[in-house]
User: Fold this.
Amino acid sequence: MNPVIKYLKNLFASQRVIGGDKELLGKLQADKILQKLIDDRRVPGLAITVRKNNEVYFEKGYGFADVEQHTRIDPQNTIFRIASVSKPIAAAALASMVEEGLLDLDASIYKYVPYFPKKEFDISLRQLAGHTAGIRGYRGGEYGLNKPLGIKESLALFQDDDLLFEPGKGFQYTSFDWVLISLAMQEVSGIPFADYVREKILNPCGLKNTFPENPGHHLPNGTTFYSKGRLGFRKAIPVNNAYKLAGGGYLSTSADIALFGQVYLDPKFREGKIQSQFLTSGIINGTPTYYGLGWQVTQDKLGRTYYGHVGNGVGGYAVFYVYPEQDMVFSILINCTNPGVLDTLEEVISVFLKDVNSNIPT
Assistant:
């Protein structure tokens, strides 16, 4: 049978069974789009978790954690590299430290990391967290670095470079900003950054499958990390992301990331004096940066406000969006370096948003 006819036949059959339930039809449509990513070999594997009204609304794994072994993906347990989705987690820990009075967002980084080489201008923690500090981005092979560097040791990568602009006068997205922030947090707390995050964020939020990657350590539930070329998927180059843990070094499951997002659907929490600063876009010369402090803060094509982050790292791609007005969280993880499917994933998100709220414009 023609696959299109077969799909339509199944779709209409489902419609008869459910009595025209738009929500279930939306799930069927989203499922079809995601499965096509696998069928067309655009991604090796994918996990998605959608939360609505403080419960799981849709959750499924597609493709393979390991293509050769045909290892299936379980959204609750399969571990992915989440790349820059690490930043909101680090931002939550930073906010906790600010609330405790241990750090001041508007204080100089030199107050906490006095050995960072002096620049022409002073730099605040707020500017670092909002990527307006003027620190440069990756050069050459730094994106895929495979050296056993600690946070402090990694300063050697960029500490001697001039600022790109006067802090507060421009925007330059870079994980090096979060290297400095995590170092400041480590110096002030007196414990490793990873330990502070675990104690203050991961454990209280119930994120049991979120942790730093330990290079060379085999994870029973871990995905194989892939890159995509003209001939298909190949194993990604080995990397060590320990030094940039705060900016892009965590591992997690789609279920855990969605659960983390659930915390930010509580109006009392996100609208608090400290947290609201993290979820408010910066402004440079009258123009929004669409970035808060560790969080992307923007609107989709239909003007719906959301915050979260997109992550792209070696062997991992992640989309994490929180829609406060619709009371929804979207967590999508892929075990491949940037597969170029963001538009498709946002289409899936729009399908879910359309079908859970009849008052949302289409």
